[in-house]
Design a protein that fits this description.
Layout (H helix, E strand, L loop, with lengths): L2 H13 L6 H18 L3 E8 L5 H8 L6 E6 L4 E6 L3 E5 L4 H14 L1 E5 L9 E6 L16 E5 L2 E6 L2 E10 L5 H19 L18 E3 L5 H17 L5 E12 L5 H11 L4 E6 L5 E6 L2 E6 L2 E12 L4 H12 L2 H18 L6 E3 L4 E4 L3 E11 L6 H8 L7 E2 L1 H11 L10 E6 L4 E5 L3 E5 L2 E11 L4 H19 L3
């Protein structure tokens, strides 16, 4: 190995003396260049290392370029947060086999990956970040840049897992790449990140952005309530005729603000107020951003174990402990809500049986409390056979009856006929997969699409036999609260 290459490694070690076993690190870079040249295929190389303990959302605000993809994911009560920006590779898929297309592309990139990590951790290495629209059909309008399936390998990803912070930098390695040149690019990327984040060590630094509360107007049509009553009546009629047993119908709320909406500020409020929800941000181009704080996990996979949630049936929180307990008991005794919840749990268990017989679920629904609402909740876990692809599970579970209905196909046809708007990625699976066998996907509800000073928020509820349009309207109003409240802080 040339002296020049060692000199570059020494420069890098000046910044992070504790992280590099230099011979191994340099061997990975040289080996990646050799493999790319010998196979004439472009490869991806990742460098994962310890970093200063920082808030990943602050890292995103300081580092992210708005004209490149941005991603944020956090479950505060698990003390897990991930931010990412840019892309070195992008996966786009369309049509009914979109899950399989993405699965094949991810497998291909995994086979063309060389990674160096300064520590053993399941959140190092290559990450594929993105998701899927609710329906297979093409998206349009402000959803157009999202497509029906889109994933990226980000240029950098910053992870906080408890007290540990990790930074991973990704680079492409083309055939004929000089290892010295590759190392130079990695040094430059790391130096740029360190210099930009050094601002947080400056005690005189302050955020000069406008901190005045956002003012906005709701622009929905005046006949929205009458339209809602009409579609709920049609849905319950179809249920009586046996077309489906349950259908989930959603509403939109359209907002125009007096200035551009700062998505990361909105997200900061959501994660503080709803620590047991998954707060997320997805932006694929310098257009619209998809932001939300969802209570519903679709699937979490780690070391061959799967966890998911049956979450359906809702009631508000009380103003006092006594009131809250009364409402909780009312929800537990509600035949309508228990029926809605049963559809969800039985459907999830039935679909998981196609992968494994080792499925465990609580015998009865319990209550899961959030800041402004409480739900019937049944945790479900399973052991997956070795080699099970996470996206196969995601495809099989999406959409659950909690956001679609039952039977699935009939309910989806009903949604297309009755709702009157395009869902885009609302209630679709969003999340990530990595090269260490981990995957996390949530159901993108309690969410909104934001572009400049405009926003569209979404809220839905399950319609079953005996549903009352006024009660369901009130439920959707309750579900709009998280996004509407956070908007004033954006």
């Amino acid at each position: 190995m040339s002296q020049t290459l060692h000199q570059f490694a020494d420069q890098l070690a000046e910044h992070r003396a504790e992280i590099f076993s230099r011979p191994t690190f340099l061997w990975v870079l040289e080996n990646s260049c050799i493999n790319a040249t010998s196979s004439q295929k472009e490869r991806a190389v990742t460098i994962s290392l310890h970093f200063d303990k920082l808030d990943p959302l602050a890292v995103l605000e300081q580092l992210a370029s708005h004209d490149e993809p941005r991603f944020y994911w956090e479950k505060p009560d698990l003390d897990l947060a991930i931010s990412a920006n840019g892309f070195v590779k992008e996966i786009i898929a369309h049509g009914e086999d979109r899950f399989k297309q993405v699965e094949d592309e991810i497998a291909n990139y995994k086979s063309l990956h060389d990674g160096y990590s300064a520590l053993t951790h399941s959140l190092t290495g290559l990450h594929f970040i993105g998701g899927f629209s609710f329906f297979n059909s093409e998206t349009d309008g402000d959803w157009a840049h999202f497509g029906t399936a889109r994933f990226i390998i980000p240029k950098w990803i910053f992870v906080r897992d408890g007290n540990l912070s990790l930074l991973t930098i990704a680079q492409t390695v083309k055939p004929g790449t000089d290892p010295k040149k590759l190392l130079e690019e990695i040094v430059l990327s790391l130096n740029t990140i360190i210099e930009k984040l050094a601002v947080y060590r400056n005690p005189s630094f302050s955020d000069q952005e406008n901190k005045e509360p956002l003012s906005f107007n709701v622009t929905d049509q005046l006949d929205e309530r009458a339209n809602w009553n009409d579609i709920v009546a049609k849905a319950t009629t179809e249920i009586k005729h046996g077309t489906f047993n349950k259908i989930v119908l959603a509403r939109t709320r359209n907002i125009v603000a007096d200035r551009s909406i700062v998505e990361t500020r909105l997200l900061h409020h959501l994660r503080r107020e709803y620590p047991n929800c998954y707060s997320f941000l997805l932006q694929f181009a310098d257009t619209a951003s998809f932001v939300g704080s969802t209570p519903e996990r679709l699937v979490s996979i780690q070391s061959g174990f799967l966890n998911t949630d049956g979450l359906a049936g809702s009631i508000p929180r009380g103003q006092s402990a006594t009131d809250d307990t009364i409402l909780e008991k009312r929800l537990l005794m509600s035949d309508k809500d228990q029926e809605e919840h049963r559809f969800v749990v039985e459907s999830i268990v039935s679909r998981l049986k196609e992968f494994t017989s080792e499925i465990h679920r609580a015998p009865e629904a319990s209550i899961r409390k959030f800041t402004n609402v409480q739900h019937l909740y049944t945790p479900i876990s399973a052991r997956l056979p070795m080699g099970t692809n996470p996206l196969d599970v995601v495809e099989k579970l999406h959409p659950t009856p909690a956001v679609g209905g039952a039977p699935r196909d009939a309910a989806l046809d009903g949604i297309l006929e009755l709702e009157g708007f395009r869902r885009g990625w609302y209630a679709g699976p969003v999340g990530w997969i990595n090269t260490n066998g981990r995957a996390e996907f949530s159901v993108a509800i309690r969410s909104g699409l934001i572009k400049d000073n405009r926003a569209t928020f979404y809220a839905g509820c399950g319609i079953v036999e005996g549903s009352d349009s006024a009660s369901e309207w009130n439920e959707t109003e309750l579900k709009f609260i998280p996004m509407m409240t956070a908007l004033r802080h954006a």
